[in-house]
Specification:
Elements: E1 2-4, E2 10-12, E3 18-21, E4 33-41, E5 45-52, H1 55-61, H2 75-94
Parallel strand pairs: 3-5
Antiparallel strand pairs: 1-2, 1-4, 2-3, 4-5
Amino acid sequence: VAHLERTGYYLTVKDNQVVQLHPSTCLDHKPDWVIYNEFVLTTKNYIRTVTDIKPEWLLKIAPQYYELNNFPQCEARRQLELLQARLDSKVYQEGF
């Protein structure tokens, strides 16, 4: 998974690798979050075979894998922490 940073590049969420979408990617925009199949090393770091995703899917479908305490400090972690707080608040509110 990679997150679009303010620089216009993506940062892989687990190991903070700066990457770009491969030119063969068929997306017509730069989604904020993507999941990718291939990490291609050329003169640049590319990710290929990418799909636009919603970040809440990461927290709901694979919470063990996306355990935020194991993430390096980065923008993606901050975004996911904010999202987790909102999801927790929503679950809390639905309990009443």
